[in-house]
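README: folding subset

This subset contains proteins for which both the sequence and a predicted structure token string are available. Records are stored as plain text. Below is the entry for Cobalamin biosynthesis protein CobD (319 residues), shown exactly as it appears on disk.
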Amino acid sequence: MLSGLSFSTVAVLMVAAVLLDLWWGEVRRWHPLVGFGNLAMALERRFNQGSLRFARGVLAWTLAVLPLTALAALLVWTLRLPLPQAVAHTVMLYFALGLRSLRDHNLPIADALAQNDMPNARRLTSYIVSRDTTSASEIELTKASAESLLENGNDAVFGTLFWFMIGGGPGAVLFRMANTLDAMWGYRTPRLLQFGCAAARIDDAFNYLPARLTALSYVLLAPGLQGKRRAWQCWRAQAPAWDSPNAGPVMSSGAGALGVELGGAAVYHGEIEYRPTLGAGKPATGIDINRAWRLVARTTALWLALACGAAVLLEYTHA
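--- output ---
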């Protein structure tokens, strides 16, 4: 591994960081990703102007990501002793994870819908998606939340764990910074189309394998043989039509695993965008937000169990 950690150590630190995230959640003040987001906004204002905006976007991405990744790697290297290094890797992974954040931002939407409190449900949903929720129905709000859970399960959890297995704490930090820049700069608006193109394509590359492993995990955890077959078929048939090469497999397999229909029309910046259908089955309702969260949580448990099982197997075969 690029991190220099043994697989058993990686597995233990993954479990520790996930438990820390579930117990503590995001820090309320001075979260590193919030500071990074402020840096990204400053760089976009400084460089996204004039001509050669694609090249300026590449330069801004480099200035935002590479120095901080190098600093994280240098910190781990200078600690040298195993225990301080392990703590540093765990803390970096903890700050990069967002499992509890997904729960805390989405389950209140399901609660509001269960109480038929549509104004609150619309307000809460507007915090997690860029689409217009002003007059959204229960089905539309459920789609927005469930899609966010399934896609961000990959971005905030599984992709982060994947790159931690490859590069330890610095690997997780690198992935989350690349993912954050795509979320901030990767929109196809007139202002960001050229400047954010590099950030979007780099994130696609980082996410290619994690997204497909996530999609496969959703297939494996679908209920029953019929559910697994449906999730697999939705993935293979629907993902190519989605505009994102990684969100397509993740959301189509997840929707198929849940047995609900996601995707379809949504309002962005005052205009209706007609998106392909995801999944198959009944229209999504508020309770499906809870089901999407449980799918993400079970997938996290599966990844940790596989990592620990692989560590034990490797230890046994090398004993």
